[in-house]
UniProtKB/TrEMBL annotation:
Organism: Desulfoprunum benzoelyticum
Signal peptide bounds: none
PROSITE patterns hit by this protein: ABC_TRANSPORTER_2
Protein known as: Branched-chain amino acid transport system ATP-binding protein
SUPFAM superfamilies xrefs: P-loop containing nucleoside triphosphate hydrolases
Gene Ontology BP annotations: D-alanine transmembrane transport; L-alanine transport; L-isoleucine import across plasma membrane; L-valine import across plasma membrane
């Protein structure tokens, strides 16, 4: 059974159809990429999956249950975490505090226990802080727990956002352009991290990425969107030489002039 399935999902803004009847299936334990030119509807699709936008039609099923109508926090509690295209950290909070924010959907203590600092609250707080430090180290950040998030280098901020998403213990991790702005070494390191997240933790990964080397290197399956529609899907080898995908990225001339043209 698919971990995630969308059936004829649509999202309309005024007269613009941002997502047009997208059918998509994601099997558990895979690393899958969604690619497409700017404005193809990729981030809108992510926002619809995570409850930021409500779909205007179609079905979204996760782990056998519908997500339609749920709030983002309810969807996170079901097992979907995400990062954002533009980093959204709490800059005035420490690295550990940012990771702790990601755990809120699973914290069990009542507001009263929190307010009165009861023994159960203190025990849960200590457990959460220990987990946050381990996640910080897991993503490659060491010795920076008390640093303000805003003071971290760009690549480290990207890693911190991933750690915060992992803090919710997701079944599915959505990454929106996670390698954007990174230098080649940072990109290589974070690609290894993605494989580790899947292999070590059993977390399924769905990512949006414009760096085609990252996409072709890490993806087991690729879905291509253009103008809000899914225009192709398949293995990296199939997508690399798909005429419709080449046309979407490079224009009709690339397809007409060179049948062997590839994306990378």
């Amino acid at each position: 059974m698919a971990l995630l399935e969308t059936i004829n999902v649509m999202k309309v803004f005024g007269g613009l159809t941002a997502i047009n009847k997208v059918n998509f299936q994601l099997e558990p334990g895979r690393i899958v990429s969604i690619i497409g030119p700017n404005g193809a509807g990729k981030t809108t699709f992510f926002n619809t999956l995570t409850g930021i936008y409500s779909p205007d039609g179609g079905e979204i099923n996760f782990n056998g249950r519908s997500l339609v109508g749920l709030r983002p926090d309810q969807i996170a509690a079901r097992g979907i975490s995400r990062t954002f295209q533009n980093i959204r950290l709490f800059g005035e909070m420490s690295v550990v505090e940012n990771i702790l924010v990601g755990m809120h959907v699973h914290l069990r203590q009542s507001p009263l226990a929190t307010l009165l600092h009861l023994r159960k609250f203190k025990a849960e707080e200590a457990e959460a802080e220990n987990k946050a430090v381990k996640l910080m180290q897991y993503v490659g950040l060491r010795g920076v727990g008390n640093e303000l998030a805003k003071n971290l280098p760009y690549g480290a901020q990207r890693r911190l956002e991933i750690a915060r998403a992992l803090a919710a213990d997701p079944l599915l991790l959505l990454l929106d352009e996670p390698a954007a702005g990174m230098n080649p070494q940072e990109t290589e390191d974070v690609t290894r991290l993605f494989r580790s997240i899947r292999d070590d933790r059993g977390i399924t990964i769905l990512l949006i990425e414009h760096d085609m080397r990252v996409v072709m290197n890490i993806s087991e399956h690729i879905c291509v969107m253009d103008y809000g529609e899914k225009i192709a899907e398949g293995t990296p080898a199939e997508i690399r030489s798909n005429p419709r995908v080449i046309e979407a990225y490079l224009g009709r001339g690339a397809v007409a002039g060179q049948h062997e043209e590839k994306l990378i």
